[in-house]
Amino acid sequence: MLRIFSGEIWGDRIEKMVRRELGDGPLRVEQLPNGDYAYSRARCKYDPVKLLGQPIGQFHCPECGEMQIAGIPHLPPEDEWDDEVPYND
Protein backbone atom coordinates (compact mmCIF):
# COMPACT_ATOMS: atom_id res chain seq x y z
CA MET A 1 0.00 0.00 0.00
CA LEU A 2 1.21 3.51 -0.79
CA ARG A 3 0.34 6.72 1.03
CA ILE A 4 1.18 10.18 -0.28
CA PHE A 5 1.88 13.23 1.88
CA SER A 6 3.03 16.70 0.91
CA GLY A 7 5.34 19.02 2.80
CA GLU A 8 7.99 17.64 5.11
CA ILE A 9 9.66 14.33 4.28
CA TRP A 10 9.65 12.88 7.81
CA GLY A 11 8.81 13.85 11.38
CA ASP A 12 6.64 12.78 14.31
CA ARG A 13 3.34 13.65 12.62
CA ILE A 14 4.26 11.96 9.33
CA GLU A 15 5.69 8.90 11.11
CA LYS A 16 2.47 8.37 13.11
CA MET A 17 0.33 8.49 9.95
CA VAL A 18 2.64 6.22 7.95
CA ARG A 19 3.07 3.69 10.78
CA ARG A 20 -0.68 3.58 11.38
CA GLU A 21 -1.22 2.73 7.71
CA LEU A 22 1.81 0.54 6.95
CA GLY A 23 2.76 -0.83 10.38
CA ASP A 24 6.18 -1.27 11.92
CA GLY A 25 9.23 -2.35 9.98
CA PRO A 26 11.40 -0.81 7.29
CA LEU A 27 9.75 1.76 5.07
CA ARG A 28 10.66 3.19 1.69
CA VAL A 29 10.19 6.80 0.60
CA GLU A 30 10.41 8.45 -2.78
CA GLN A 31 9.71 11.96 -3.96
CA LEU A 32 7.12 12.33 -6.69
CA PRO A 33 7.43 14.90 -9.52
CA ASN A 34 4.86 17.18 -7.84
CA GLY A 35 6.98 17.35 -4.66
CA ASP A 36 4.85 14.96 -2.59
CA TYR A 37 6.40 11.96 -0.88
CA ALA A 38 5.19 8.39 -1.34
CA TYR A 39 5.74 5.78 1.37
CA SER A 40 5.58 2.00 1.10
CA ARG A 41 7.12 -1.05 2.74
CA ALA A 42 10.78 -1.45 1.87
CA ARG A 43 12.05 -4.61 0.20
CA CYS A 44 15.32 -4.19 2.08
CA LYS A 45 14.95 -5.12 5.74
CA TYR A 46 17.37 -2.47 7.06
CA ASP A 47 15.61 0.59 8.53
CA PRO A 48 17.60 3.90 8.35
CA VAL A 49 14.99 5.56 10.62
CA LYS A 50 16.73 3.81 13.55
CA LEU A 51 19.68 6.16 12.99
CA LEU A 52 17.73 9.37 13.66
CA GLY A 53 19.87 11.74 15.72
CA GLN A 54 23.14 9.98 14.91
CA PRO A 55 25.88 12.17 13.36
CA ILE A 56 26.04 10.07 10.18
CA GLY A 57 24.26 11.78 7.27
CA GLN A 58 24.59 9.56 4.20
CA PHE A 59 25.79 5.97 4.39
CA HIS A 60 25.71 2.73 2.42
CA CYS A 61 22.91 0.42 3.57
CA PRO A 62 24.56 -2.63 5.14
CA GLU A 63 21.98 -4.94 3.54
CA CYS A 64 21.47 -3.71 -0.04
CA GLY A 65 24.48 -1.38 -0.49
CA GLU A 66 22.43 1.61 -1.77
CA MET A 67 23.22 5.11 -0.47
CA GLN A 68 20.76 6.10 2.27
CA ILE A 69 20.17 9.06 4.59
CA ALA A 70 20.17 8.43 8.34
CA GLY A 71 16.86 9.13 10.06
CA ILE A 72 14.44 8.89 7.11
CA PRO A 73 12.78 5.86 5.48
CA HIS A 74 14.77 3.76 3.01
CA LEU A 75 15.19 5.38 -0.42
CA PRO A 76 14.44 3.25 -3.52
CA PRO A 77 17.31 1.69 -5.47
CA GLU A 78 18.85 4.12 -7.97
CA ASP A 79 17.79 1.98 -10.94
CA GLU A 80 14.12 2.57 -9.95
CA TRP A 81 14.34 6.37 -10.10
CA ASP A 82 12.31 7.90 -12.91
CA ASP A 83 14.61 10.41 -14.62
CA GLU A 84 16.97 12.17 -12.27
CA VAL A 85 17.88 12.15 -8.61
CA PRO A 86 14.66 12.92 -6.64
CA TYR A 87 15.76 16.21 -5.12
CA ASN A 88 13.44 18.97 -3.96
CA ASP A 89 14.38 22.29 -5.62
Count of individual helical segments: 1
Task: Give the terminus-to-terminus CA distance.
Answer: 27 Å
Write out the strand line-up for the largest beta sheet, numbering strands in chain order: 1-3-2
Sheet having the most strands: 3 strands, antiparallel
Percent of residues in helical segments? 10-25%
Q: What value does the average pLDDT take?
A: 77
Structural class: alpha+beta
Count of structural domains: 1
Number of strands: 5
Morphology call:
globular
The SSE order reads: EHEEEE
Poorly predicted regions: none
As a whole number of angstroms, the C-alpha radius of gyration is 12 Å
Beta content = 15-25%
Descriptive key words:
5 strands, single chain, globular, 1 helix, alpha+beta, 89 residues
Topology at a glance:
Elements: E1 3-5, H1 12-22, E2 27-31, E3 37-41, E4 58-60, E5 67-69
Antiparallel strand pairs: 1-3, 2-3, 4-5
Describe the structure in your own words:
This protein starts with a strand and ends in a 20-residue tail after the last strand. It has a 3-stranded antiparallel sheet with strand order 1-3-2, covered by helices on one side. The protein has 89 residues and is of the alpha+beta class. The mean pLDDT is 77. Helix content is 12%, strand content 21%. The protein contains 1 helix and 5 strands. A hairpin with a 5-residue loop joins strand 2 (27-31) and strand 3. The protein has one helix at residues 12-22; strands at 3-5, 27-31, 37-41, 58-60, 67-69. The protein has one domain (3-80).
